[in-house]
Amino acid sequence: MSKHAQRLVRAVAELADIDALIVTNLVNVRYLTGYTGSNGIVVLSAERAVLVTDFRYQDAVEPLRAVLDVEILDRDIAGQTIERLAEFAPGCATIGFEGSMPYALAERLRVLMPSGSQFVAIDGLIEALRLIKSAPEIAATRHASDILEVVYSNIAQGQLVGRTEVAVAWEIERTIREAGFPALSFEPIVASGAHGALPHAEPRDVAIERGALVVIDIGAQGQSGYCSDCTRTFAAGGAPDSAAAEDYALVLSAQLAGLGAVRAGAIGGSVDATAREVIEAAGAGDLFGHGLGHGTGLEVHEGPTLRKGSEDVLEAGQLVTVEPGVYRPGKWGIRIEDHVVVTASGHEILTGFTKDLVETAG
Ligand code: ZN
Ligand code: ZN
Known about the structure:
Layout lengths: L2 H11 L6 E4 L2 H8 L7 E5 L3 E6 L14 E5 L3 H7 L1 H4 L5 E5 L4 H10 L5 E5 L2 H6 L4 H23 L7 H14 L4 E2 L4 E4 L20 E6 L1 E2 L8 E6 L6 H20 L6 H14 L11 E3 L6 E5 L12 E4 L2 E4 L3 E4 L2 E5 L4 E3 L8 E2 L3
Parallel strand pairs: 1-5, 3-4, 5-6, 11-19
Antiparallel strand pairs: 1-2, 2-3, 7-10, 8-9, 9-11, 12-13, 14-17, 15-16, 17-18
The structure holds zinc ion (ZN) (2 copies).
């Protein structure tokens, strides 16, 4: 059975209190069927699995017919899907829809719903299936991680001082795309000096100064959709000042502590706390304002979460990041992020580039 056929079977097995599920989240549609277009809906029940899309995807969806029924409708597929629900989900009275469904669509669903049927918001059903990765999903993520090592090696051996953040970001993007990756997981973050103290800083048309710390957070998305994610912080053109070097050592020890807590059975909130306590013990707790990490997959941010209060239980085969930071307003930012596979006894790191502070030559 193909992987998509298997996923559809697993999804149907999870329907429980509902007879059918309307899947409108395009990432979930992709996960279930392999469809990568921008206008697709899956209607799933024990009786039938149907992918609805429009004529623009007529040829692209032909191979998907081996896995489920495909209906090509006019471009406004949502209203028609609802009008033809009795046909797409035969005999189904209780029909689930995803809580992320756009409000306008939910309104039409309410107006057009067949009499006698009941609609129920169902959250996270497909997302839960996506949490644990198969060997091919992990291999695809590993492939998307390998290119990041090439990027970081180029940066370590190249020039940062005097180049603008946008120029460095563009070179990163070009390297990833020329290696055959159709997309990035997100726009590269290249943030030097005080700008690095903003965790989601956008690259500026500003030259990087000698001695500045430069936060470089990057990810590649492969052909099959799996995202990598890694951060390293470099010292541009030589050693940073000693207080910055001390903060770097602090973030690294917190990162190693967090990594050491990752294993099947660990609670997301506890893994976060293990790393956070290291930074708090140094009196810098207020300077680490975000969660420790997140799951990845077809999206760069998905479950499980590693942050304060998270009750998510890690399981073998999940992909998570461990990325503490210290952000000193007006001075510098430091973040070190590894992307790992959770295993029964610990973790396996996907991003092998050194975590020692790399000082570039120029
Ligand atoms: Zn990142
Ligand atoms: Zn991340």
